[in-house]
């Protein structure tokens, strides 16, 4: 399994991680199999959030980790907080502290390797967040911090108040979700693709040595479904199949490899809860695409160049 550096930290993590958003649909035995499969594949990073399955995903993970052959220290365990579903985003100090305590309990661990703020809160007071992060770090409950779905201005605003350097920004990114690179390719043009939705977040992350974690790597739209084997995307599936045949691998491995080919050195958060799919998808970490192969897939997804 290929590894990546986590931000500026010097820590090494697997280039693909296991996201457990969908683990609430499994029983503990099934979840145990997923965790053991992941570790056997060389995956050492797990991503959760307090809201996944209303907390049940983390609970199932915690119970499964205990009964599995995997020990706590074989994994980086990450969670996220700051969303009160259906009500508000909440970066108040107390909410952040409670979110971490809740996750430690559900996951059955006494520290998180990293904690991310899930989505930017318009009412964010950076000093409140700083006070929460200091307390969490001093108590040993959280080792590293990051954000998710933040643009560079939001990162700068928060970072200026923090004593810890933000290590991660988790963003939706994949073959069918490329707005963060489209605008760069269309710079100085007047078409819609030249619109910068995210403030140059990839360039920012590279300059500031933040790891970008690509969430929902196989989805198109906002949870509209996956593009793999989807008849809505015949050209893309045909191009991925051709490349997969050439490289004796699967289409999903090509989709993973496509993200990892980017020099920003993303970490891909895989969401499958099927051990066979997990092995297929993770295999992409060890497949190298040429520059032309990368562009050919980009074109097959419906993109162009000026
Ligand atoms: N920060 C954020 O705002 C945010 C938002 C959403 C998600 N996330 C993180 O990202 C992780 C991944 O998200 P996701 O689950 O949407 O990602 P995903 O891996 O793109 O999609 C998972 C879905 O694709 C299916 N799938 C995956 N591989 C397949 C294959 N080889 N063949 C057929 N079907 C396949 C899965 O079904 P099977 O289980 O049947 O394989 C599942 O329904 C989450 O667990 C979470 O940790 C973060």
From TrEMBL:
<feature type="domain" description="NADP-dependent oxidoreductase">
    <location>
        <begin position="17"/>
        <end position="296"/>
    </location>
</feature>
<dbReference type="GO" id="GO:0005829">
    <property type="term" value="C:cytosol"/>
</dbReference>
<dbReference type="GO" id="GO:0016491">
    <property type="term" value="F:oxidoreductase activity"/>
</dbReference>
<dbReference type="InterPro" id="IPR023210">
    <property type="entry name" value="NADP_OxRdtase_dom"/>
</dbReference>
<protein>
    <submittedName>
        <fullName>Oxidoreductase</fullName>
    </submittedName>
</protein>
<dbReference type="InterPro" id="IPR036812">
    <property type="entry name" value="NAD(P)_OxRdtase_dom_sf"/>
</dbReference>
<dbReference type="InterPro" id="IPR050523">
    <property type="entry name" value="AKR_Detox_Biosynth"/>
</dbReference>
<dbReference type="InterPro" id="IPR020471">
    <property type="entry name" value="AKR"/>
</dbReference>
<dbReference type="Pfam" id="PF00248">
    <property type="entry name" value="Aldo_ket_red"/>
</dbReference>
């Amino acid at each position: 399994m290929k590894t990546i550096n986590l931000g500026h930290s010097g820590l090494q993590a697997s280039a693909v991680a296991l996201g457990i958003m969908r683990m609430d649909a499994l029983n503990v035995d099934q979840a145990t199999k997923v965790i053991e499969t992941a570790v056997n594949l060389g995956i050492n990073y797990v991503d959760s959030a307090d809201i996944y399955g209303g907390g049940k995903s983390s609970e199932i993970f915690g119970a499964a980790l205990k009964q599995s052959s995997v020990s706590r220290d074989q994994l980086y365990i990450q969670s996220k907080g700051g969303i009160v579903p259906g009500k508000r985003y909440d970066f108040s100090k107390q909410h952040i502290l409670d979110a971490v305590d809740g996750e430690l309990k559900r996951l059955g661990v006494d520290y998180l390797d990293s904690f991310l703020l899930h989505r930017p809160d318009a009412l964010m007071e950076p000093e409140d967040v700083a006070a929460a992060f200091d307390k969490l770090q001093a108590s040993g409950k959280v080792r590293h911090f990051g954000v998710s779905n933040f643009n560079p201005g939001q990162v700068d605003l928060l970072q200026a108040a923090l004593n810890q350097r933000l290590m991660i920004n988790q963003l939706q990114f994949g073959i069918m979700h490329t707005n963060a690179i489209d605008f760069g390719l269309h710079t100085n043009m007047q078409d819609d693709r030249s619109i910068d939705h995210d403030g140059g977040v990839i360039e920012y992350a590279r300059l500031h040595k933040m790891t970008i974690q690509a969430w929902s790597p196989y989805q198109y739209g906002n949870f509209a479904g996956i593009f793999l084997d989807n008849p809505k995307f015949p050209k893309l599936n045909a191009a991925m199949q051709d490349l997969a045949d050439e490289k004796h691998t699967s289409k999903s491995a090509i989709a993973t490899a496509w993200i990892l080919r980017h020099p920003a050195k993303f970490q891909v958060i895989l969401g499958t809860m099927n051990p066979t799919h997990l092995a297929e998808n993770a295999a992409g970490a060890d497949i190298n695409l040429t520059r032309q192969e990368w562009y050919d897939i980009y074109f097959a997804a419906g993109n162009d160049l000026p």
